[in-house]
Amino acid sequence: xxxxxxxxxFIRGTAAAGxxxxxxxxxxxxxxxxxxxxxxxxxxGNVTYDVLIIGSGGAGMRAAxxxxxxxxxxxxxxxxxxxxxxxxxxxxxxxxGVTGLTDPKDSVESHFRDTVKGGDWLGDQDxxxxxxxxxxxxxxxMDYMGYPYNRQEDGHFHSRKMGGSSHPRAAYxxxxxxxxxxxxxxxxxxxxxxxxxxxxxxLEISMSGEEDKKLNGVIAMDMRTGDIIGxxxxxxxxxxxxxxxxxxxxxxxxxxxxxxxxxxxxNIGVPFKDPEMVQFHPTGLAANGVLLxxxxxxxxxxxxxxxxxxxxxxxxxxxxxxxxRDIVARAIATEIEQGxxxxxxxxxxxxxxxxxxxxxxxxxxxxxxxxxxxxxxxVDITKEPVLISPTCHYSMGGLEMADFKTGATRVPGIYxxxxxxxxxxxxxxxxxxxxxxxxxxxxxxxxxxxxxxxxEHEYAGSQDALQxxxxxxxxxxxxxTSRGKNEGRTVPEIRDSLINTMWFKAGVxxxxxxxxxxxxxxxxxxxxxxxxxxxxxxxVYNTAYEQYVELGNLIQIAQAIVQGAIARKESRGGHSxxxxxxxxxxxxxxxxxxxxEKDGSYRAEYKDVVxxxxxxxxxxx
Amino acid sequence: MDVKLTIHRFVEGKEWTQDYNVTxxxxxxxxxxxxxxKEKQDPTLSFTCxxxxxxxGACAVRVNGNAELACEMLVEKLVERYQTNELTxxxxxxxxxxxxxxxxxxxxYAELKKIKPALQPKADTSMETGCLQSPxxxxxxxxxxxxxxxxxxxxxxxxxxxxQGDFLPPxxxxxxxxxxxxxxxxxxxxxxxxxxxxxxxxxxxxxxxxAKCPKGLDPAAAIEHLKEATFRYGLADNVGAKHAKAIYDDxxxxxxxxxxxxxIKSEGFFAAGLRAPMAIRLMxxxxxxxxxxxxxxxxxxxxxxxxxxxxxxxxxEQGTGTVASGEPLIKGKQVGEVLA
Lengths: 621, 340
Description:
The complex is a heterodimer. By secondary structure, chain A is an alpha/beta fold. Among the domains of chain A are: 282-390, Succinate dehydrogenase/fumarate reductase flavoprotein, catalytic domain (Flavocytochrome C3, Chain A, domain 1, Alpha-Beta Complex); 465-585, Methane Monooxygenase Hydroxylase, Chain G, domain 1. Chain A is built from 19 helices and 21 strands. Chain A has helices at 2-5, 7-11, 40-43, 58-68, 108-118, 125-145, 177-191, 260-267, 295-298, 312-315, 325-337, 359-365, 367-377, 434-456, 463-481, 491-505, 512-529, 543-567, 585-588; strands at 49-54, 75-78, 95-96, 159-160, 170-171, 195-197, 200-208, 214-222, 228-238, 272-273, 278-285, 302-304, 350-353, 386-395, 398-400, 414-416, 421-422, 509-510, 576-577, 590-596, 602-608. In chain A, helix 6 packs across helix 14 (434-456) and helix 16 packs antiparallel against helix 17. The longest helix of chain A is centred in the C-terminal third of the chain and has 25 residues, at 543-567. Chain A is globular. By secondary structure, chain B is an alpha+beta fold. Chain B has 4 domains: 2-103, Ubiquitin-like (UB roll); 106-232, Orthogonal Bundle (Fumarate Reductase Iron-sulfur Protein, Chain B, domain 2); 239-284, no CATH class; 300-339, no CATH class. Chain B is built from 15 helices and 7 strands. In chain B, the strands form 2 sheets. In chain B, strands 2-1-5-3-4 form a 5-stranded mixed beta sheet. In chain B, strands 6-7 form a two-stranded antiparallel sheet. In chain B, a hairpin with a 2-residue loop joins strand 3 and strand 4 (66-69). The longest helix of chain B has 21 residues, at 300-320. The radius of gyration of chain B is 24 Å and the shape is globular. Chains A and B meet through helix 6, helix 7 and helix 13 of A and helix 1, helix 3 and helix 4 of B.
């Protein structure tokens, strides 16, 4: 399957089983002009974009605004959904940035230090310093753009203090900081006439020429017509978000967080940096992974196992439920693993008991938590405890950003920003409210960087190669969607196997043996994927095929996570090895870089963490 | 409990309805039911969704004729509301359908562009320093910043159903009022003019948008506040505003509508003259007498007091934002109950 997705393997004639290679079949464009979403000129390949951004979340739209400031550049945002449906909208807490408006004692240095420590010293300190210096500026800019900040009496926006921060420095809108950010950016994009190519699923980034160094453009499926389109571009900026859906129901991420951009980047030679670094939030609903806010524990809810024992007393005798996210998540996972959880399999959990909190206070301060529990678990938390279990919350790993001052990857013309990228600012663990500011800072930077590259370079790609890739995908579509029911398991069935493997063998806790098992299971799943059943052959808005493509990406992401986790024989931040419970700075103060080889296999390299100001010490709160 | 979902299908020009049976489990939302059908019964059923926590706006559909966010509406709640185990699911109304439950948003974004949909910063603010705003000023528009662009408000909008060409989706008015009420904006008048030109006064006042908004934003009230603002900004030189003013004058002066003059006051002599045939028909059946002196309501004193009280309340309202009463009269989720 990986081979189907890699254009280079295709060109070298080692196409995967199942992909028919017969040349000269019907063209990739159906010729329908009914969809104004993709202009006819684009369909005919007559428009070359200077900057083509993939993904319409915070990073993508911020980048689009930055790139659009350069007059005369042709910029567009391509998204598999429509704008404003992204994971960014779900962020609740705020965006960190030192402005000194709420707390004059706050400093860039403090933000820098907190972020290094929060990331368990895996973050690159030169990049973190750059980030901390700019985060405040981007918050002011958002005010100018119309972000609806909550205000303090002096008229400036108010900042709240988030976990792991030494000062209040997260500006916000109510409990919907991300939603407000996305809509403010979208408003600006509408006003600036930023072009959106909505409902187009990126299939691959097309490169050819000597050593595949020339960028042709992006191959995508226009969902509305089913056309496979080749969009020529001088630069591609990947801003497709995280990969939390590798754990499917055990994630707080949206359905769209399937790591599409990371896999597309890997296929053209961008390494996947620190894939094993995944953040687990302790309190997701056992039923479906939806997040119950951190405020649950802050307000005094107790964690209990099936025997009614308040187990946090054992794991963190002092702080108990108020210990940090990773400690609580590991405690819950241990209880479940050792048979003291409630329920079976992926939906097993422990009790989160709110009944010790007066009902009026629950209504007043935990309205959202009460509502989610009632709706999804059928539980009235004022009367009985609700079942929770850890849920994957954030992907620290991502495409290696080779130059944090431009957002460039190591492949010329390819840029990246947001959760799909790894700068690395978050290191092994992200602090609350640092994700939205990362999106702003590096979305902005990468937009500028891509625009500068586009101004200095001519389009050097090959339209013929772009066409050839379109045809390859057209044939893939025809072959995959015409498979019979008895040829293989369905896409959701394989996905469920994938998440069981990932959750139980490469989840909150990892051991050599489990990871090795996961490695084998993933190889088998990848083979099975090669003949899975999709069950819909329509060309118009074929979400079944889209989910097939996404599953292919998820399996490849999972393989990288497992490979990175096997090699990292230590515990650091989001990565917990039972067999290596200590952090090992001697051997692992370095980044994992997973490269995808031409035969589809993965190769790991390591790169030292950049330490400038803060040598590693114990991470204690 | 089993439910039968009758789903409107539309694939490549073919239209039909298809029945699916689903066993309802605890916490099963409409979205989960749809997902289960797609995964276990029919992979061809198509819909969009993303966050499943009612913030991204991707999954709104129509159930039994009313827009709902699929990810937050429980199937059991609908069964209870409509007192039936058979539910009908359709794509949102007043959208072009792309496939099954998926609708085309692009024309709606084009509509949004008509209202200058971004903050116009004031001259004394900058990218470097941001803007200043008091908490009270923030409170005036904060609720409206909660719009998730799910499209529920336009689904049953009667004005949009009649003609989308000369009107906006209700969420565009919500956005418009958000900026109009935002003290940071430099050009509320310019935007308001654009909103008037885009059809502000053509709203039918049917309140469907307010009833359907899953976030309780009350788009109908936003429209009313925009109308009020047109008077403050001297943009009342149009039929809609003049009509409103004529009614206001009649009621404050006599407590009764003067039907004979209402039309002239609203449309002017010339345009009203074109309605002469209708006037003659009305006169013929005794519905209108141009020579009769306009009566005065015996309760005029009370009526005038009421007008004064309403004006005072409206002034207060401008202090607290668009939604003076806090909650719409009929909340979205209760409409079904009201109808049933």
